[in-house]
């Protein structure tokens, strides 16, 4: 869904946008199937997306929702081409490609402390090996990296440098979404490692000259797999909404709109989880949630009432 409508593969956009990469219609069904539940109908995601888009269009000149199916299709095609070229395909993203469709993963994520302040250096996902161990597995390989977004390019540059120090040489990077400044930084980076091609190939399915922000859709939905920023001492997450995270700092939502926007996101999340409960005839408790929320219990407490309490807290003056 996009305010500038049409297929996205290979598009180049000019002007200031607010960009959201759709992914919850991939992540939620995958989680449902993994625990034997029926997933929501595909059209159930249309309402939450329409409401969020309408809200954001009041705040930003242009709003772009990038279709998850287009992202997945484009990344799959790119992975196949990289494999055909003899490269080992490694994914840094967790939404669009299945384990069977790539050769491996590097598990890095943004982390925060208990007060929601960012830990500057990217950390590994909870329960995955140390960063150096992940790099060492790729020693001697010619690698293509797949990611969901190139924003500033700093995280990818750090990852590529770490791989090169382990004599794993990155020959190509493909991302679903790329900011022109970040793409240029990546292309200009000098790694000084023997075996590194003179010009690393960098491709993005959608490229933007300038954006107000780019956010993965899941980050606005507490409890959805891989949503929010990870607590650096555990597996809990800080979604990009109140009363958990920092929608102003992390998602460029204006301060005067933080409460209403967060309430909308919680309404959308409640609707999705209530539908999963309805069609399966069960109550979803916190111990079942794939992405624990910081401050919520991890026991048999039902999840939806906690979301409703969080919503009420958002709207308190």
Largest sheet: 7 strands, parallel
Please report the number of helical segments. Answer: 9
Mean pLDDT reading: 91
Q: How does the helix and strand content classify structurally?
A: alpha/beta
Radius of gyration: 19 Å
Helix fraction bin: 25-40%
The largest sheet has its strands arranged as 2-1-9-8-7-3-4
Unreliable spans = 1-9
Distance between the termini: 34 Å
Describe the structure.
The chain is of the alpha/beta class and 317 residues long. It has 2 domains: 155 residues, no CATH class; 142 residues, Rossmann fold (3-Layer(aba) Sandwich), CATH 3.40.50. The chain has 9 helices and 11 strands. The strands form 2 sheets. It has a 7-stranded parallel beta sheet, with helices on both faces. Helix 2 packs antiparallel against helix 8 and helix 8 runs antiparallel to helix 9. The two termini are 34 Å apart. The N terminus is likely disordered.
Itemize the secondary structure elements and their pairings.
Elements: E1 11-21, H1 24-34, H2 46-57, E2 63-66, H3 68-84, E3 88-91, E4 104-105, E5 108-112, E6 118-124, H4 131-136, E7 142-150, H5 154-165, E8 169-179, H6 180-188, E9 201-216, E10 229-231, E11 237-238, H7 247-251, H8 258-280, H9 303-315
Parallel strand pairs: 1-2, 1-9, 3-4, 3-7, 5-10, 7-8, 8-9
Antiparallel strand pairs: 5-6, 10-11
């Amino acid at each position: 869904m996009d305010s500038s409508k049409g297929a996205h593969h290979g598009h180049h956009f000019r002007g200031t946008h607010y960009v959201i990469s759709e992914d919850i219609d991939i992540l939620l069904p995958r989680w449902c199937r993994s625990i034997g539940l029926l997933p929501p109908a595909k059209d159930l995601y249309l309402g939450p997306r329409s409401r969020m888009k309408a809200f954001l269009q009041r705040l930003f000149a242009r709003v772009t929702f990038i279709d998850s199916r287009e992202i997945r299709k484009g990344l799959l095609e790119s992975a196949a081409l990289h494999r055909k070229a003899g490269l080992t395909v490694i994914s840094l993203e967790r939404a669009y490609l299945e384990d069977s469709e790539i050769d491996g993963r590097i598990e890095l994520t943004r982390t925060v402390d208990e007060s929601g302040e960012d830990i500057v250096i990217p950390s590994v996902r909870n329960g995955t090996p140390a960063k150096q161990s992940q790099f060492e597995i790729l020693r001697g390989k010619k690698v293509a990296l797949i990611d969901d977004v190139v924003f500033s390019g700093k995280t990818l540059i750090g990852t590529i440098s770490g791989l090169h120090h382990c004599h794993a040489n990155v020959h190509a990077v493909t991302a679903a979404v790329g900011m022109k400044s970040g793409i240029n930084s990546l292309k200009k980076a000098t790694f000084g490692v023997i075996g590194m091609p003179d010009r690393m190939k960098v491709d993005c399915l959608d490229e933007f000259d300038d954006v107000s922000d780019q956010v993965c859709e899941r980050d606005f939905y507490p409890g959805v797999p891989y949503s929010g920023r990870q607590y650096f001492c555990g597996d809990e997450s800080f979604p990009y909404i109140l009363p958990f995270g920092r929608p102003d700092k992390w998602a460029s939502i204006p301060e005067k709109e933080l409460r209403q926007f967060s309430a909308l996101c919680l309404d959308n999340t409640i609707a999705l989880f209530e539908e999963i409960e309805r069609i399966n005839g069960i109550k979803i408790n916190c111990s079942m949630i794939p992405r624990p929320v910081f401050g919520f219990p991890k026991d048999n407490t039902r999840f939806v009432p906690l979301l409703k309490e969080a919503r009420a807290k958002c709207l308190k003056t």
